[in-house]
Amino acid sequence: MSAPIQDVNGAHTGDGGTTPPAAPGDVIARVAELRRLIAYHSERYYELDSPEIPDADFDALVAELRDLEGRFPALRSPISPTEQVGAPPSVSFAPVRHTVPMMSLDDVFGSDDLRAWAQRMERIVPDVAGAAIVCELKIDGLAISLTYRHGVLVQAATRGDGLVGEDVTPNVGTITDIPSRLAWPAGRGSIPSLIEIRGEVYMPVSAFEQLNERQIQTGQKPFANPRNSAAGSLRQKDPSVTATRPLAFWAYQLGAVEGLDTEVMPARHSDAMALIGECGLPVNPEMRVVTGIEEVIAFCRKWEQHRHDLDYQIDGAVAKVDDLDLQQRLGATSHAPRWAIAYKFPPEERSTKLVAIEVSIGRTGRATPFAVLDPVVVGGSTVSLATLHNADQVHLKDVRPGDTVIIRKAGDVIPEVVGPILSMRPEGSEPWSFPTVCPSCGGPLVRLEGESDTFCTNLDCPAQRVQRIVHFASRGAMDIEGLGEKRVIQLVDLGLLADPGDLYRLDARKLVDLEGLGELSVDNLMRAIDGSKQRPFSRLLVGLGIRHLGPAGCRELARAMPNLDRLMAAPAEQLAAIEGIGPVIAGSVVAFFASERNRAVLAKLRESGVSLGVAGESAPTQRSAPGPDAVQAPGGLPAAVEVSPGIPQTLQGRSVVVTGSIDGYTREEAEEAIEARGGKSPGTVSQRTWVVVMGRDPGTAKLRKAEQLGVRVVDASGFEELLSTGALPDEA
Fold first, then answer.
1. Is pTM beyond 0.90 here?
2. Residue 717 has what pLDDT?
């Protein structure tokens, strides 16, 4: 028998509006232009696997066209892009007509849209109220239909236009995730004469990064992103090329089925996915069956926050009514089922105009080019500035003032310019040249031999002075709340600050009359500065901003050399022998402390009572875990408490990975607490990991890796006991 279970996956749609009596000429022209642009970019995306614009920009074009067609019905057309699914199949591959159309999904972009979808379904089929809903991740890959006859893979086809796809069977046969023969489970009756399984071919992020490294090493152009890499790899004319690409697969739907015993035919989508998993195809482990639209919203919000915890790209979440009978009763529109919806995350790539390229000067004098942009919303926030890294990157990307460029902002990552849209470059555009003088002090900008960066060599440069103090006060260093860049600039311009040591000599009486600073603000700032005096020694080292020395290296140095005097007296050879340091960092540390200018700053810190570490040979001062009555330092962090230099080495030689939030600790403090007891706290799970401590909102990728490697995972509620005893809960 045939089970006409409809397919779902991402689509580009929008909402209609009011209908004026006639379409003005400018609207008619805009509709024609939108259709031309959408057709052009559809070809680049679906057929050439070489898109010019971000998905969000394409979505916006389709949404605008759909809106205009809704307001002016006379402009609607059956051949409009808004009535199409995907794109026509390429003539390079044999056509395959889908037994059941591979439909698309309507998109929504907010919680209210999800609630409206639920209400629409209930109006059509009241029984939907309270029904189970399956929530899945929306994989950013290429939709594929797999056809098995008597358990043997006989055909693999792309979506194409939803009705006809491309035959890519030899290429799909190279993907190890996809079995050539189903492992039909016992108890499921006889194997069906035909079963169709649909899913998404994708490229893992880690594999994509390795692939691009090889591309660069061999002098080839790197790929744009994992999705296009997967699509391009799968649609190679030579399957042997596809075989060299690290493709993977997630199944997401059961399609046509023939010859399956009626009594074992799945009645729910979740049952169908369980059957697919039993057959040996990978089903995404994050799939959840929930009740009620509020639980759907919670699922979407969770993954919007944790999308980067995964080793594959997702651009949203999908919600489907679980009951297949209810799906049939709800039916579909001309292009999408009513029983499913795609919740799209805020776009992480958008295009906008690059107004100018300017240069900023950092605390080490490094000159970093950055783009001044027409403001655009990316990743949920408005972006008007984006980094260009260095002169080589500007040259490689060939971005120029006046270009329309693609901006990327993933999570908390600093926005960056991906590259220009060359088809939109204005005529007469000239390449940008790196300036030769510092925009802050007018001194020379010099590119050192063997370096990719350019530096201002004037140590008295005002911009460097500001950034050194800003870095010293930052959260990862001395964590002085209320001392951001604008405030530092104000105090430097007034001559009240010249270096970090001057922070502890500020006179509150001189601050109360400054713009933006009242008596309460000054009091809070002075408390924050005073509270920072007892930060752990490793945090002070971070604040000093020694070149090449990062936070992890600072912690290693602080463990081996637990006070400033010992560290300053240590020769480079001794420092280089410390794990994680090496000769380059050691040389940079020695050079830093040899500078009279830096020694003068350290003398100010010493005179002001800033903790410079602890005496003796043991670990540096650490911040102990707060009790219920712990005093809170400014910024909401627990006040620093000195502990005995002889902290028991309960975790000696053990690797403890922390994922998620632990009450009473910042991420850095949890790592410092582990390291103070002789352990290590790397950012990734490996075979050397002893245990993973799981806090609130943990990283899924770390937990999955721990499960794969058989690494023990413990709840954060036992973190204190772990620190004090070095024993796992069932060993204590």
1. no
2. 80
CA angle 525, 528, 530 (to 5 degrees): 110
- When mean pLDDT is compared over 122-136, 197-211, 714-728, the highest value belongs to 122-136
DSSP secondary structure, 222-270, as one string: PPS-HHHHHHHHHT-SSHHHHHTS--EEEEEEEEEEES--GGGS-SBHH
SS3 638: strand
Q: Which two tokens stand for residue 396?
A: 């490689």
Q: Is the CATH number of domain 483-607 3.40.50.720?
A: no
Position 621, amino acid: T
Residue 630 is given by DSSP the state P
State the span(s) of the chain assigned CATH 2.40.50.140: 349-456
* Separation of alpha carbons 90 and 167, rounded Å: 10
* Residues with catalytic roles: 138
CB 357 within 8 A of CB 401: yes
Q: Which residues contact 421 (CB under 8 A, 6 or more apart)?
A: 52, 53, 351, 403, 404, 405, 406
H or E segment and range at residue 576: helix 572-576
Q: Per-residue pLDDT tens for 357-382?
A: 999 888 888 888 999 999 988 877 78
How does DSSP classify residue 415?
P
Both tokens assigned to 286:
């994050």
Average pLDDT, the chain: 83
The one-letter amino acid code at 238 reads D
Tokens read off for 215? 């591309």
Q: Which tokens is 288 given?
A: 């959840």
Which CATH entry fits the domain spanning 95-344: 2.40.50.320, 3.90.226.10, 3.20.20.450, 3.30.470.30? Answer: 3.30.470.30
For residue 337, which amino acid is it? P
In this prediction, residue 623 carries a pLDDT of 34
Alpha-carbon span 550 to 553, nearest angstrom: 5
315: enclosing H helix or E strand? strand 314-321
Is CATH 2.40.50.140 the right assignment for the domain spanning 349-456? yes
> Which residues, 6 or more positions from 313, have their beta carbon under 8 angstroms from its beta carbon?
139, 140, 141, 202, 205, 225, 226, 227, 307
- Sheet containing 340-344: give its strands across: 107-108, 340-344, 314-321, 132-139, 288-291
Instruction: State how far the Cα of 626 lies from the Cα of 639, in Å rounded to an integer.
Output: 8
Taking residues 426-440, what's their average pLDDT?
90
Provide the pLDDT for residue 87: 58
Residue 154 has pLDDT above 90, yes or no: yes
Residue ranges matching CATH 3.30.470.30 in the chain = 95-344
In the block, tokens 């499921």 appear at 188
Please report the pLDDT score of residue 14 as a whole number: 38
pLDDT the model gives residue 215: 77
User: What fold is seen in the domain 655-725?
Assistant: Rossmann fold (3.40.50)
- Put residue 267 in one of left, alpha, beta given phi > 0 → left and psi -120 to 50 → alpha: alpha
- Sole residue written with tokens 């390429």: 90
> By the 8 A CB rule, do 479 and 635 touch?
yes
Of 339-348, 572-581, 634-643, least confident by mean pLDDT is 634-643
The confidence score (pLDDT) of residue 189 equals 86
Which one, of 227, 245, 221, lies nearest residue 348 by Cα?
227
Distance between CA atoms of residues 119 and 267, nearest Å: 23
Through-space distance between the first and last CA atoms of the chain, rounded to whole angstroms: 59
At 699-710, the pLDDT tens digits run 777 887 888 888
What's the pLDDT tens digit per position in 39-71? 888 777 766 667 778 877 888 888 888 888 888
Half-sphere exposure of residue 538: CA atoms within 13 angstroms, side-chain side: 24
β-strand pairing of 142-149 with 95-97: unpaired
- φ/ψ (deg, to 5) at 253: -160, 145
Dist CA 29 CA 6 (whole Å): 36
Q: What is the structure's pLDDT at 324?
A: 96
Question: pLDDT tens digit string along 572-596?
Answer: 999 998 877 889 899 999 999 998 9
